Amino acid sequence: MRFSHLSLTARMSLMFMSVVIAVLAAAGLGFNMLSQHHFKMLDQQALSEKLESTRYILDNAKGANLAAELPQLRALLGAHQDLLATILSGDGTVLFSAPAAVKIPDIAKRAEAGMWDWQDGEHTYQGVTAKIQVTGQPQPLTAILALDVTSHAHFLDNLQRWFWIGLTLSALVSAALGWAVARSGLGPLRQVTQVATAMSARSLQERIPLGPVPQELQQLVLSFNAMLARLEDSFVRLSNFSADIAHELRTPLSNLMTHTEVVLSQKRDTEAYEENLYANLEDLKRMSRMIDDMLFLAKADNGLIVPERTDIELADVAVKLADYYRLLAEERDIRIAVTGTGRAQGDRLMLYRAISNLLSNALRYTPPGQTIALRIHQTADTANLSIENPGGTIAPEHLAKLFDRFYRVDPARREGSPSNAGLGLAITRSIIEAHKGRIWCTSVEGLTGFHIELPRLPTMVDASVRA
């Protein structure tokens, strides 16, 4: 099984066990090396002391008579149970041996001087060979000392064996403890999982409490609660949208059914049928426009609206729309004024539709004898267009919801009208957002304004005034 397929508890347990094994292994290897070095230094110190004592005794020998010094050498070297000692003359004759007839290893004969190691069956020796110049002797003597360190080797072997046994037991215990600690520490995460599993469309209002959650998981819980809030808001909006669609389509469908039933209730002349068909055609056109608008919004929500990127002079679009609505405005004694200029990058037809929706909305709520102002200006990075009209002040709590589908400030007008289904501002926002811009509304002291901000082109155009 790959590591990525293991549970989080198993992963943390394995990591905890690996860390414990690594630390214990490093500590054990370090202790073993220090122990070996310590015993080796003790053995070398013992050999060095014996060698110096031997050198002292031989240096004090009288002439060539070494026999007088043998009792001292035997007392020095023969009393040590684990020490082997041999002294050879220049021609290789054994002058002293303790114990008697000790076997001289080949490595000691080859070594002119220095320390050496020797294995003899189950015994391990550490030795030293040294040349000693004695007065009266034509050639230097050779002193060979070897110390039996078998007990030290057995101790180190036992130490290593118990170390591996202890390391294995520590790995098992650390794995069990790591699993218990990880499972306890991941308790809040399991709580988050349980809440997420229990979520449904009827329980989106539930939130995970932050009190028992540790600090490391608080950001996760905050993000999860924020996601639930967004899901709840989207679900409520979708539910309301579905209800609004049914509500808006009910009126034209009811009109169609009523007109058709009345006409079919008795025989009528051709003009009556034509009049009924024309009335039905108006309702069908309204339904068709509403369906087209909803399809447009559905595409916008899924990122399927990709506007063209062309150079657009916003003042030209505003002037054409002002001319288009001028007759309707003059009938209501309303003036439309366009001021300023600015260039943006976008889809001309889509921006034309967005600004047209805002201008149509302004005409609907502007009192007679007033002026609708279209102001255009640009900054270093954006091109801005504002449509301001006098009228009733919109309460602040409604401003952020004006761009919702089928939303109306006045609940009494929920049925809408043949020319207004409540989707114009929602479509406008989708168009502006598709252009990477933003739109917002302000309403203060009887003056309501819709403001559009679009990314602008790097070229600049001199300001002008158009009316």
Automatic annotation (TrEMBL):
SUPFAM superfamilies: ATPase domain of HSP90 chaperone/DNA topoisomerase II/histidine kinase, HAMP domain-like, Homodimeric domain of signal transducing histidine kinase. It holds the Pfam family HATPase_c. Residues 183-236 form the HAMP domain. It catalyses: ATP + protein L-histidine = ADP + protein N-phospho-L-histidine. The chain crosses the membrane at residues 12-34, 162-182. Its EC number is 2.7.13.3. Keywords: ATP-binding, Cell inner membrane, Cell membrane, Kinase, Membrane, Nucleotide-binding, Phosphoprotein, Transferase, Transmembrane, Transmembrane helix, Two-component regulatory system. This is Sensor protein. The lineage of its organism: Bacteria, Pseudomonadati, Pseudomonadota, Gammaproteobacteria, Pseudomonadales.
